[in-house]
């Protein structure tokens, strides 16, 4: 891996994030209505002159291309603008909310790996047996069930029937670490089950393929224990497709956080973006989408780097 390759990869990632921003900027303004329309609905009768003045104050009277240049110029200076509804700094709000979304997605990823990897290994080593059949059932349910349905089911079971976890709300970790874990566990579990099912399927298929390779048979012929053969020799190569799936699904976790945060009442970036969409608050939506897009492309850069660390045969130049 060279510095030139890494610089090109980061450049392409930032270009992709820029393309997402342009697309979101244009699509938001193609949707009928704007923030003034929403405010008029809340405030009652507003004269056309007042509406025009409000649009002028918000900068919505300018052509779309000029609005984009104004926003992008401010973005290059590190300014994401202010909310048209609350007049609060979008950058400041995102700094407050991003740790919640980050904790949610990281915990969901950890849960998915803790479920998916052992289950996939067990299914591969028990091919055709009961454990393999049960894991296949879990994969089918996990991939088919929508995240919001799983969230509602988990609330019904573990918050209402058995009150082990709170159904909504968020406790910051500086107030109570245990309370924080209880408030984010159910949302993370609901968000993780789909990824856990995908990881289970990929680990099973990849491990079955690797276990049939010559070097694995050689390791077994030397008398090594099965555990050593599987976890020390086979799993290293079997993990490459798993890393690929995790990198691709990272965006799904961030996207799924929008609905999960709304259901569980978590003050994260996803809920912030959803509120901005409902109120046509353009700076809020653009800032939130930009943060999610940049996070997604950076995860993909990290995945590419991990390829070279896991498999020395992968060389970037």
From TrEMBL:
The keyword Ion transport does not apply. It is found in: Cell membrane. It is a multi-pass membrane protein. It comes from Deinococcus aetherius. Its main location: membrane. The chain crosses the membrane at residues 104-125, 137-164, 184-203, 238-264, 284-310. This is ABC di/oligopeptide transporter inner membrane subunit. Residues 98-307 form the ABC transmembrane type-1 domain. InterPro entries: BPD_transp_1_N (IPR045621), MetI-like (IPR000515), MetI-like_sf (IPR035906). Belongs to the binding-protein-dependent transport system permease family. It holds the Pfam family BPD_transp_1_N. Gene3D superfamilies: MetI-like. Coiled coil: none annotated. Keywords: Cell membrane, Membrane, Plasmid, Transmembrane, Transmembrane helix, Transport.
């Amino acid at each position: 891996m060279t510095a030139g390759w890494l610089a090109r990869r980061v450049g392409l990632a930032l270009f992709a994030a820029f393309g997402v921003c342009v697309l979101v900027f244009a699509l938001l303004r193609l949707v009928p209505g704007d923030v003034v329309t929403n405010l008029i609905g809340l405030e009652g009768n507003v004269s056309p002159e007042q509406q025009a003045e409000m649009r002028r104050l918000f900068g919505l009277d300018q052509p779309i291309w000029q609005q984009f240049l104004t926003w992008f110029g401010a973005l290059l200076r590190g300014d994401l603008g202010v909310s048209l509804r609350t007049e609060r700094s979008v950058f400041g709000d995102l700094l407050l909310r991003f740790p919640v979304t980050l904790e949610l997605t990281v915990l969901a990823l950890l849960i998915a790996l803790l479920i998916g990897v052992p289950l996939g290994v067990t299914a591969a080593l028990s091919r055709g047996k009961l454990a393999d059949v049960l894991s296949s059932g879990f994969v089918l349910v996990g991939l088919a069930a929508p995240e919001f349905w799983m969230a509602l089911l988990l609330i019904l079971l573990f918050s209402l029937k058995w009150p082990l976890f709170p159904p909504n709300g968020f406790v910051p970790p500086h107030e109570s670490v245990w309370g924080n874990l209880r408030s984010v566990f159910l949302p993370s579990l609901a968000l993780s089950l789909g990824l856990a099912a995908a990881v289970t399927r990929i680990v099973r298929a990849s491990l079955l393929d690797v276990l049939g390779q010559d070097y694995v048979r050689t390791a077994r012929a030397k008398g090594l224990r099965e555990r050593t053969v599987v976890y020390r020799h086979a799993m290293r190569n079997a993990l490459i497709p798993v890393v690929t799936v995790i990198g691709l699904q990272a965006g799904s976790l961030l996207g799924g956080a929008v609905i999960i945060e709304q259901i569980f009442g978590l003050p994260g970036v996803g809920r912030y973006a959803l509120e901005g969409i409902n109120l046509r608050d353009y700076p809020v939506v653009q800032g939130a989408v930009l943060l999610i897009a940049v996070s997604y492309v950076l995860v993909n850069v990290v995945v590419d780097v991990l390829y070279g660390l896991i498999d020395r045969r992968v060389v970037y130049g």
